[in-house]
Write a structure and sequence with these properties.
- The protein is an alpha/beta fold and 281 residues long.
- The chain has one domain: Rossmann fold (3-Layer(aba) Sandwich).
- It contains 13 helices and five strands.
- It has a five-stranded parallel beta sheet with strand order 2-3-1-4-5.
- The chain starts with 11 loop residues before the first strand and ends in a 10-residue tail after the last helix.
- The relative contact order is 0.16.
């Protein structure tokens, strides 16, 4: 069995947020010769059965690393699955006490809409966006899809700040990631102390975007499952047969902007971010 000092464990993580551009960010970062990130999300600390397998098992998930100095775990679920005991931030800190965290944060109103359409695309949702949002508001953040809850970033970051210092956190606005991907990556690379001048060929490609939706939902689910390992063909088929998603109703957008306003103001104060860009969208 490996000794602990021989274990290959991450020294940074992309921890959030879901539907915030994390897949694209990880995709761009993988090209950097000094960085290793496994393909796909790791999901170690958010699943009790895998977490209990311990650091030796966790290390095997990074066996593909070949001398890169920066090794990353990419799992947005770590940011919002906070109900586990012990909580995910504590689980991570106990195994890897010295760790850098990257947060990719998107306007929570747009994030909620994207999350809804992603679930609809996979056949996991049948309600209108307005009905789904109202249901969550009535449930006061209880069980459900978490369209609104997952955008309460300030609560998620506070949970991690209990065990990790803020100077070990990098905050990326997904709107800037897509408007200026290379500039955003330079800042991330500087944070990780790797060559910030590196430019990959994939930068600018949007990954894991929500695709058009086909009704009824059963057909959608069949296509999604049948072509699970053929993402390129799945995307082509859904685009051919599906209908583009409509824009969010202006009144709904305004209501959600007001819902998130106090949370975003707390977030801006907590981490020193200028979030004025979110008020323009």
């Amino acid at each position: 069995m490996k000794q602990r000092e021989e274990l290959v464990l991450p020294n940074f993580m992309i921890v959030g947020a879901q539907r915030g551009g994390t897949t694209s960010l990880a995709h761009y970062m993988r090209e950097h010769p000094e960085i290793f990130i496994p393909r796909g999300e790791v999901h170690f600390f958010d699943h009790d059965e895998t977490w209990r397998r311990g650091s030796e098992y966790y290390s095997t998930l990074f066996s593909g690393a070949s001398g890169q100095q920066r090794i990353g775990d990419y799992t947005p679920a770590y940011s919002y699955q906070l109900g586990l005991q012990p909580p995910i931030p504590q689980r991570i800190a106990e195994m890897i006490p010295h760790l850098q965290l990257i947060w990719c944060l998107r306007n929570p109103v747009s994030r909620a809409h994207s999350h809804y359409w992603f679930d609809l695309m996979r056949g996991r949702e049948s309600r209108s966006f307005e009905d789904a949002v109202q249901s969550e508001l009535r449930s006061s953040g209880g069980p459900g899809h978490g369209y609104l809850r997952h955008g309460l970033y300030v609560n998620q970051i506070r949970a991690f700040l209990q065990v990790f210092p803020i100077h070990d956190m990098q905050f990326v606005l997904s709107e800037r990631l897509f408007s200026d991907p290379q500039g955003t990556l330079r800042a991330v690379f500087r944070f990780l102390a790797v060559n910030p001048a590196f430019e990959g060929r994939r930068v600018g490609r949007v990954m894991n975007a929500a695709l058009p939706v086909i009704r009824p939902g059963m057909v959608q689910r069949l296509i999604w499952r049948a072509l699970r390992s053929r993402r390129h063909w799945r995307a082509k088929l859904l685009k051919l047969l599906g209908k583009p998603r409509p824009e969010m109703h202006p009144q709904t957008r305004h209501s959600l902007q007001e819902f998130y306003r106090p949370h975003n103001e707390e977030l801006a104060t907590l981490v020193g971010l200028d979030l004025s860009l979110w008020q323009e969208r």
